[in-house]
Amino acid sequence: MPQAAGQHGDRELFRRGGGLTAPADSGYRRRLEALYLPRLDRHRIGPEAQAWPNIFEQSVRFIALADIGIKPDDTVLDAGCGLGDFATYLGEHDFQGRYIGIDALPQMVERARRARFADGFDISFDCADIRDAPERWQADIVVASGIFVEMTEEEARETIAALFRACRRGVAFTSLSSWDRSENAEGFLRLDPLRTLDFCRTLSPRLLLRHEYFYSDFAIYMYRDLPDVN
Known about the structure:
Layout: H1 26-43, H2 55-66, E1 75-79, H3 85-91, E2 98-103, H4 106-114, E3 122-127, E4 139-145, H5 153-166, E5 167-176, H6 193-201, E6 206-210, E7 217-223
Parallel strand pairs: 1-2, 1-4, 2-3, 4-5
Antiparallel strand pairs: 5-7, 6-7
């Protein structure tokens, strides 16, 4: 689910048991609410409630994210988790670790918490913006599916850097691509794949760019350095 960046302004706390926090300034929240709340009211569940065209496109992106190398016992952080559909995907593929979903919209988080997920792994949801405290959300693998559409390029870079700070082993994210020359009626951010890759190189030299699964979309994997074995 897309997330946008913003300066810290009016904040609304959202708390779940001993869990966290999260909020975003009012301008950020207005952008997200305008995009998602009408869809959430209309569709309630499923990809369309999260501004995805259909379950096929959502699933292809989930496959691209999971191909970074998620292990069965990993801790996975899903930034901009929406209704937690990636947790469902993991549960269908023998995941037995810990899934943490965070999203800036409390309406999404509340709906995700009421959903039914397969048993067999630890799952939790909190309302948060990854940029506010990436060190709080440490995970083996951090994923983000299409969270940049309402951002500027600068905001997207801030978010990518925060995603990487939160990971112990690697980050996988997807984005709409500027190489797609079709009409962009919604005005969503389409990042340039090579410019984005160049930025990611400032964070890690261990990278992979994928642009084969959709012409309109790309994925980047960023890995932590391997430990010395001397």
